[in-house]
Amino acid sequence: MSAPETASASAAQTTDPKKMPTVILCIGMAGSGKTTFMQRMNAHLRAQKQAPYVLNLDPAVSKLPYGTNIDIRDTIDYKQVMKEYKLGPNGAILTALNLFTTKFDQVLEFVDKRSEALDYVIVDTPGQIEIFTWSASGSIITDSLAATYPTVLAYIIDTPRTTSPATFMSNMLYACSILYKTKLPFILVFNKTDVQSHQFAVEWMSDFEAYQRALKDDTTYMSSLMNSMSLVLDEFYANLRFAGVSAVTGSGFDEFFDRVKEARDEYYAEYKPELERIIRERQKLQESEKKDQLDRLLKDMAISEGKEVDLDVDADADEQ
Hints:
The chain has helices at residues 3-13, 34-47, 78-85, 89-101, 104-114, 129-133, 136-148, 165-182, 199-206, 208-215, 221-232, 234-238, 253-304, 311-319; strands at 22-28, 53-56, 70-71, 120-124, 151-158, 186-191, 241-244. By secondary structure, the chain is an alpha/beta fold. It has one domain (22-279): Rossmann fold, CATH 3.40.50.300. The radius of gyration is 27 Å and the shape is globular. It has a seven-stranded parallel β-sheet, sandwiched between helices. It is found in: Cytoplasm; Nucleus.
């Protein structure tokens, strides 16, 4: 953990948890409806008189259907990055995110100034999900936010495109990998329930045999693999929060925010104590390393002091 994160964590420890806004990091594959979900979530909170602080971290989005407090596009020109560094679209998004991350401590300062008046900070991330979740800059941003505020990951899923057992399993494996990488409270958000109900997914997660029945018509090697994967993910399903929403109609958002409150409680019960333990261990390690360096320095100084020379003895030797 870097020095800014450690400082942020120390600040979080001295702040009343009740006055800390909840950060909702929205992650989802391209086409999952993540931007529309952000728009609806923003509108829902404003209707509840809980206007959120909105961050956009997607430099490639052409137009946003909601207002932002901080927008990466105001700082970095995505197309100019492509031209200057001779990069493709994904490389330019990653480079833009890296450049923005170098100033992310300023973003935290802006949020901190408003934190006591806020209930939520909502963050939109690039549609190229791997760029944010597996890059160093994405990890720095996530860890910095989580070290300062109670942070929840909302993984947006395109429900109509998940009705296939293979696609469903791909989404679950990706969600599982993100959960275990970040170790943050996690919510599966089944979007577009106005088009396709998410009950089939709920059944597959809660009933292994139901998922097996869905696979019975598939005789390829993939069927056997997915069967095995569903057994492996059984524990993941058992502790998973999920909500079905429609970003178009607004249905399901009350349930979603109930899950967010549960995830916030989990942050304070599990994530924050672990974070504080890691910080204490690193501080002890740093103090131990400093002490070792000081001991080595003193030892070197003692060796280099030398001994007194008797000049009379040297003179007699010269005469002989």
